[in-house]
Amino acid sequence: MHKRISVEQLRLGMYIHELGCSWMDHPFWRKTFLLDDPNDLKTILATKIKLVWIDTSKGADVDEETITECETEEEVNDTIESTLALADSQLKSTQRISLAQEAALAVQICAKSRDAVASMFQETRMGSALNSEEALPIVEEISNSVIRNPGALISLARLKDKDDYTYMHSVAVCALMVSLGKQLNLDDEQIRQAGLAGLLHDVGKMMIPPEVLNKPGKLTDAEFAMVKNHPSEGHKLLLGGIGINDISLDVCLHHHEKVDGSGYPEQLADKQISLFAKMSAVCDVYDAITSNRPYKSGWEPAESIRKMAEWSNGHFDQRIFQAFVRSVGIYPTGSLVKLSSSRLAVVMEQSDKSLLAPKVKVFFSTKSNCRIMPELLDLALPGCTDKITSFEDPEKWNIPDLLELWSGLPAVHK
């Protein structure tokens, strides 16, 4: 039985069914959990949360002497109004907003999602069953960000530290799967499940010793075999989970399969590989090669797209890969490009008219080798004569503040 109580009535042994705020606004990665840690109780009491729902079938009930009177009609009306206001707020939260606005939100979403995935995966490593219901709030927040502005979170998630690669990679692949699902016109439930599958696809890496997973040098044959076994290990973990559906199981096991049959673990080919597994293969590779790893620095986004195009015949399903390029762009958000006017610009937003003509921010003259007044330029406009001639390496031009140029965020967030 679910009961709504004030936080003052909380005591250890109660089972929290829901906290009276959104997932991003409370300090826990789960929305449901047994309240058995005194520090967690102190944390809740220190927040602005006033009401919580408890599940008395899974934990302690309210003491009889502390039961409050039933809600008055006025309190019920207040609850209804609050619920409607929250629904309206959530609706507005998925309306498209500017890159700078979403980048600020995406930083918070990335940070909390990373911590949530880390906690979830580490608990799985220790033997806890993974519960899909606990992962869905992460997927919802990431999905909403992608809907509001596709480039922000995807580009920020790429700028991960080497130390938290596995967790942020899961966040990034979730976002990429959502974006690709939208491009493929999947329905809302399919997109949701694609995002969840992306979030869980690498859980098997929790069974690899950290010294192997984060090894900066070349792996031995035995270590490489251990790494290649992570899809099978992850599949076993998910089979023991709660509410894990076939899509997540399939993606976890088959995200390293290739259409030419040279992938692993089952060497599936083309039609033997599901739509979602083919999607995950593209998203997984893109984030992997654009991210800094313990053993190498990531490639620039535009260069990565070009490299993937070279591999695409044997590695990826062509229809899926082409849809992926449309979803992130030939020159993804945050890419440094050179224009025919001999100026450097950073890509700000993709164009609906042409993959080759995104919106950019011009800020550097290669002729003068110096900064110029930043200028927003829509290369797809009929009167625009400038065009992209190449993608560029920020280090070559000594551009340390590329993140700030496109997102408005200081370089500290790299």
Automatic annotation (TrEMBL):
GO molecular function: phosphoric diester hydrolase activity
CDD domains, alphabetized: HDc (cd00077)
Keyword DNA-binding: no
Record-linked Gene3D superfamilies: Hypothetical protein af1432 (1.10.3210.10)
Alphabetically ordered keywords of this record: Hydrolase
HD-GYP domain ranges (all copies): 142-340
InterPro entries: DUF3391, HD/PDEase_dom, HD_GYP_dom
Protein's name according to its UniProt entry: Metal dependent phosphohydrolase
Protein species of origin: Gallionella capsiferriformans (strain ES-2)
